[in-house]
Amino acid sequence: MRLNALVLVTTGVGFVVATPSTPNWALLAWTLLGTAASAASASMFNQLIESRRDAMMRRTERRPLPQKHIGRPLVFVMAALLGYAGWALLIWSAGWIPAALATANIALYALVYTPLKPITSMNTIVGAICGAIPPLVGWTAATGSFAPGGWVIAGLLFVWQLPHFMALAWMYRDDYARGGFVMLPNVDTSGQVTAQTMVLTSLILIPLGLLVTVYGIAGWWFAAGSIVLGLWMVVESFRFLHSRTDASARRVFFTSITYLPLLLIALVLDRGSVSPSAALRNAPVYIAPDEKIPQ
Fold first, then answer.
1. Which pLDDT score, from 0 to 100, does residue 60 have?
2. Whole-number percent of the chain with pLDDT over 90
3. Are residues 15 and 81 part of one domain?
4. Could you read off the pLDDT of 177-229 as tens digits, one per residue?
5. What is the Cα–Cα distance from 8 to 5, expressed in whole angstroms?
6. What is the pLDDT of residues 30-45, one digit of tens each?
7. Fewest CB within 10 A of the end CB: N or C in the chain?
């Protein structure tokens, strides 16, 4: 539920920042409902596939399937019905692009990310792609098309997940090993590569945050806030590089779960272009029927 709540929040933010004026609240509600159904479907398929491994891990052993509180056939049917409902709601209310994105994300999560987890640590990259798609669902639901701004926000979500999840995987590396999952901290026993990945991706968050202002999605207050928050992530990641302990990984993890909501709040509050020229880069061009196109 916590993970899917984050999916809905980022979808909503993508929708709202794509419409600097008053958003269409009814359309937003339908978009969130369709996205919620799709996210629930992906989670159900994931837990259905991983039920045996979940039973081996302390952090997941009390899920309904390992505890046999619910049958596998019922979970499969519900996951399929919710996936269909999410697609139907989105294509009816918001159009084919957000519907296709949400449905593709179910397939990517269940058919690529989940099977890769016991095979290669590169599964984290695929998982981060899944987490970057929801703001694009919101953006395209609001505008009906893709735009550079939507990709920048998706990029921020993609990069943020890497230090966030590396810290989590380090803290639970023994538990992941017990379940048979191949995460970077399990193959990088010294933690050197894990820490370097966290530092590098935290550093990338700063220019990505500034791109949000460059593309006219948010103003200078957001730019300043994104720099401060990004530097905080960098400092904590460097601390983990210096001292690769569970305590320092936990600090990176809690910094990351503070970073994202603060960044999203700043994005919503300071949304809108800082200059007319920046706004025009994403604006559609309209020519009246009786107006001549300049040569």
1. 87
2. 82
3. yes
4. 999 999 999 999 899 999 999 999 999 999 999 999 998 899 999 999 999 99
5. 5
6. 999 999 999 999 999 9
7. C
Task: Give the pLDDT of residue 273.
Answer: 62
For residue 185, the enclosing domain spans 147-279
Same domain, 185 and 245: yes
Name the domain count of the chain: 2
Integer angstrom CA distances of residue 214 from 13, 19, 102, 229, 293? 18, 17, 28, 18, 29
Task: Look at residues 237, 196, 229 and name the one whose alpha carbon lies nearest to residue 210.
Answer: 229
**Domain membership flag for residue 169:** yes
142 lies in the same domain as 159:
no
Which residues are CB-contacts of 194 (< 8 A; sequence separation ≥ 6)? 166, 169, 170, 184, 185, 188, 244
Does the predicted model carry a pTM greater than 0.85? yes
Claim to verify: residue 86 and residue 122 sit in the same structural domain = yes
**Which of 22, 176, 154, 170 lies closest to 101, judged by CA?**
154
* One domain, residues 126 and 6: yes
Radius of gyration of the chain (CA): 20
